[in-house]
Automatic annotation (TrEMBL):
<feature type="transmembrane region" description="Helical">
    <location>
        <begin position="53"/>
        <end position="77"/>
    </location>
</feature>
<dbReference type="Pfam" id="PF07885">
    <property type="entry name" value="Ion_trans_2"/>
</dbReference>
<dbReference type="InterPro" id="IPR003280">
    <property type="entry name" value="2pore_dom_K_chnl"/>
</dbReference>
<feature type="domain" description="Potassium channel">
    <location>
        <begin position="107"/>
        <end position="163"/>
    </location>
</feature>
<feature type="transmembrane region" description="Helical">
    <location>
        <begin position="97"/>
        <end position="120"/>
    </location>
</feature>
<protein>
    <submittedName>
        <fullName>Two-pore potassium channel 4-like</fullName>
    </submittedName>
</protein>
<keyword id="KW-1133">Transmembrane helix</keyword>
<keyword id="KW-0812">Transmembrane</keyword>
<comment type="similarity">
    <text>Belongs to the two pore domain potassium channel (TC 1.A.1.7) family.</text>
</comment>
<dbReference type="GO" id="GO:0005886">
    <property type="term" value="C:plasma membrane"/>
</dbReference>
<feature type="transmembrane region" description="Helical">
    <location>
        <begin position="7"/>
        <end position="22"/>
    </location>
</feature>
<keyword id="KW-0407">Ion channel</keyword>
<dbReference type="GO" id="GO:0015271">
    <property type="term" value="F:outward rectifier potassium channel activity"/>
</dbReference>
<feature type="transmembrane region" description="Helical">
    <location>
        <begin position="28"/>
        <end position="46"/>
    </location>
</feature>
<keyword id="KW-0472">Membrane</keyword>
<feature type="domain" description="Potassium channel">
    <location>
        <begin position="7"/>
        <end position="77"/>
    </location>
</feature>
<keyword id="KW-0813">Transport</keyword>
């Protein structure tokens, strides 16, 4: 299991930093998650040089030390699921199960995010889907972001989960595609010989 102490200390540091620049506890958690996931909506910004410098320190700590801990947590959960499936003899080949998990996972992330944002933030379906995709892919244009208290509470948990899971699912999907592509290339080269 990854070391949760880094994540806890990072969140305490982030909340304190945001509180120091006049933000609420909720905005502190929300802002820390937005930084950690590198979404960067642009809705919570430091205005003075000292606060900008402190924010750069927080961003750097998150980028270089903490972000991998969140991904490691997901890897750990994935490992436990695979071990459980193997124990039940429901798991036989890594690639097909990872492909299935990737497709289902991405669909669930985009679907649940869109529905939740639609109803929590009151956005149109198009804007909710747009914010979901921009968030999950960590693009975060900034024109749409979580504005309500309920939306920011949802974002604290959903952004951490969705960006980490999406990153891992993307790796699985690409690995499966490459496996299939190279398997086909091997088969074709064997036929030529």
């Amino acid at each position: 299991m990854p070391n949760m102490n880094y994540i806890i200390v990072y969140f305490i540091l982030g909340v304190l930093l945001f509180w120091n620049i006049g933000k609420s506890l909720l905005e502190g958690f929300y802002g820390t998650v937005v930084i950690l996931t590198s979404v960067g909506y642009g809705d919570l910004v430091p205005l003075v040089h000292r606060d900008k410098f402190l924010m750069c320190v927080l961003i750097s700590i998150g980028f270089f030390f903490v972000a991998d801990c969140v991904e490691d947590m997901f890897d750990y959960i994935h490992y436990k699921v695979v071990m459980w499936l193997r124990q039940k003899e429901w798991y036989s080949n890594v690639c097909p199960i990872n492909l299935l998990l990737a497709v289902i996972g991405i669909s669930l992330l985009l679907g649940s995010g869109t529905v939740a944002i639609r109803f929590i933030e009151g956005m149109s379906w198009t804007d909710a889907f747009y914010l979901t995709v921009a968030s999950v892919t960590t693009v975060g244009f900034g024109d749409k972001h979580f504005q309500s208290t309920g939306g920011q509470c949802f974002a604290i948990f959903w952004l951490l989960l969705s960006t980490s899971v999406a990153k891992r699912l993307s790796k699985w999907l690409n690995a499966q595609i490459n496996h299939m592509r190279f398997s086909n290339m091997d088969t074709r080269s064997q036929r030529r010989e």
